[in-house]
Amino acid sequence: MPSRYEPCGLNQMYSQMYGTVPIVHDTGGLADTVVDLNDETLEHNTATGFSFFADNVHDLNTTIWRALNVYWERKDVWQQLIRNGMRQNWSWEKSAEQYVRFYEKLRTSVREEKKPKKEKKPEKEGKSEKTDTTELDTVVMSPVDTAPTA
């Protein structure tokens, strides 16, 4: 998929779901959904295909030959790419879970900012007995803050 611009792209996701190893230009949604095979991604078992970075014929051709070489010479790695691709999950359920985790983290962060700051304890003998209190930071209320909690 030698797209110069690809805001999302579905074909690479369909391809992986059915066991086809994609070759893509590293742009937009293609870059988000295809993990290029290299030593690190092979070791971490995260590679799902092949990417090229410059949008020219030379880099596309080089990447095609790199993929063919893996197919011909490294059948075990090729099978690993197929399995990794088929394990990918781009479902709405997964996306929704990621959004929930993000908003829960945001909500916790806002609550932590709202907590009153503790007064400093008086220092030991011979030192000043003065305590330092500070005002609460101003926090803008959002719909997340006003939502009922369980």
Number of helices: 7
What is the CA–CA distance across the termini? Answer: 47 Å
Largest sheet: 2 strands, parallel
* Overall 3D form: elongated
CATH architecture of the largest domain: 3-Layer(aba) Sandwich
The share of residues in extended strands comes to under 5%
How many domains make up the coordinates?
A: 2
- For the secondary structure, the number of strands is 2
- What's the CATH topology name of the largest domain? Rossmann fold
The residue-averaged pLDDT reads: 82
Rounded to an integer in angstroms, the radius of gyration calculated over CA atoms is 26 Å
Uncertain runs are 128-150
Structural class of the helices, strands and pairings? Answer: mainly alpha
Quick tags:
150 residues; mainly alpha; Rossmann fold; 50% helix
Describe it.
With 150 residues, the chain is mostly helical. The protein folds into two domains: 11-87, Rossmann fold, CATH 3.40.50; 92-119 and 130-146, no CATH class. Helices cover 50% and strands 4% of the residues. It contains seven helices and two strands. The protein has a two-stranded parallel ribbon. It is elongated and about 75 Å long. The chain starts with 10 loop residues before the first helix and ends with a helix.
